[in-house]
Automatic annotation (TrEMBL):
Domain spans labelled ODAD1 central coiled coil region: 33-311
Keyword Cytoplasm in annotation: no
Keywords: Coiled coil
Domain of life: Eukaryota
Annotated PANTHER family: COILED-COIL DOMAIN-CONTAINING PROTEIN 63
Family matches, as Pfam families: ODAD1_CC
Coiled coil: 28-76, 116-191, 218-277
InterPro entries noted in UniProt: ODA-DC/CCD, ODAD1_CC
Keyword Disulfide bond among record annotations: no
This protein's name: ODAD1 central coiled coil region domain-containing protein
Length: 363
């Protein structure tokens, strides 16, 4: 069919006059030159198309890489936020523990001060009572010694007078002591409100036992005060250790926060650069799409077969660019095939009518 069509066109273009060999050679050279020019144009168009395809592939890979980087950045950002919230919660718990420990320390200090004050007062009172009791014991010991000496019989004659005077003096002293003791006993009876000496002695022994119990109580209080002091020292040491530990952890958290801020600034800067790169890539991609559309229009491709696939959105974009590229590829393949068969038919006619009156038509 193509052969008959070419022969019909050749008959229409055949001149009335006879063509010489020189004209034939000239036209043959002109036809070959035109064919070479068309081949060069086709080759350049194919190279530009391949370059556009390669650039499109590179841009797609770069866009995929940027999307992956963005997803990884979002994951790292969420992880850092969670870690910062956990560390902030831990810091709040440490502050609460330090506050509770400080309040307990204040309470123990106030209790310790009250116990020290009470123990000091009890110690002074019991010391005074012990001094009074010791004085009475010394007096009783002196009186008992005096009575024992008085009962002894002197055998020295030269000392009888002296002993007599001494005895008289001792009797007088004894009488005075008896009077003093009676006065003291009267005072004790008045103070105790009891005339019976045995009951007074019982009260004295009972009071002595109470004093001894109070003395033991004071000793126990002093021991407890010492234990509380040691416990308070341990608590104070633990509080100091916790404060130092909290300071160290606060410094570590501050360093971590500074590092996170630095990383955040770096990531933010990288994100801005990536967004700028994405914007430039989108501009390049838009330019490539416009170039593909220009090639589509330059090749005069028919949009009819692909309108059903494109739907309402007939403009070229990332989703339908493959359809346009497929149409362009088919168009170029058709042009190459037509050019090949036309060239083959032309060369056949040239060989067949090399010496005839045939004139090839070159469009």
């Amino acid at each position: 069919m193509i052969h008959f069509r070419l022969e019909a066109e050749i008959r229409k273009l055949r001149p009335d006059t006879v063509v010489t060999d020189q004209d034939y050679d000239t036209r043959l050279k002109s036809g070959k030159r035109n064919i070479k020019v068309l081949k060069d144009r086709l080759e350049n168009a194919i190279k530009r198309f391949c370059a556009l395809l390669a650039e499109n592939k590179r841009l797609r890979e770069e866009i995929d890489h940027l999307l992956k980087e963005r997803a990884r950045y979002n994951v790292i950002w969420e992880k850092m936020l969670k870690e910062m919230q956990i560390r902030k919660k831990y810091m709040i718990e440490l502050i609460e523990q330090a506050t509770v420990a400080f309040d307990q320390r204040e309470e123990w200090c106030s209790k310790l001060a009250a116990l020290k004050k009470r123990a000091q007062g009890d110690y002074l009172a019991h010391t005074e009572e012990m001094r009074e009791i010791q004085r009475k014991l010394d007096h009783d010991f002196t009186l008992r010694e005096f009575l024992s000496v008085k009962g002894q019989k002197r055998v020295l004659k030269d000392l009888e007078e002296k002993d007599k005077k001494k005895k008289e003096s001792q009797v007088q002293n004894l009488e005075n002591q008896i009077i003093q003791l009676e006065n003291t006993m009267d005072q004790i009876q008045k103070f105790c409100g009891e005339d019976d000496v045995s009951k007074i002695a019982t009260l004295y022994l009972k009071q002595e036992e109470e004093n001894f119990a109070l003395f033991n109580y004071v000793n126990e209080l002093n021991h407890e005060i010492e234990l509380l002091g040691e416990a308070l020292s341990e608590i104070q040491q633990k509080i100091d250790e916790q404060i130092e530990l909290a300071k160290l952890k606060a410094q570590e958290r501050q360093k971590t926060l500074d590092l996170l801020k630095s990383e955040l600034e770096t990531v933010t800067k990288q994100r801005i650069e990536d967004e700028e790169q994405v914007r430039l890539t989108e501009l390049k991609l838009t330019s490539v799409l416009l170039g593909i559309e220009e090639v589509f229009d330059l090749l005069k491709c028919d949009r009819g077969p692909i309108l059903g696939l494109l739907g309402n959105n007939a403009a070229i974009n990332l989703f339908n660019v493959k359809i346009y590229l497929g149409t362009i590829e088919k168009k170029i393949s058709g042009l190459i095939t037509r050019l090949y068969f036309a060239e083959k038919a032309m060369m056949t006619q040239f060989k067949k009518f090399h010496r005839g009156n045939f004139v090839p038509a070159i469009n």
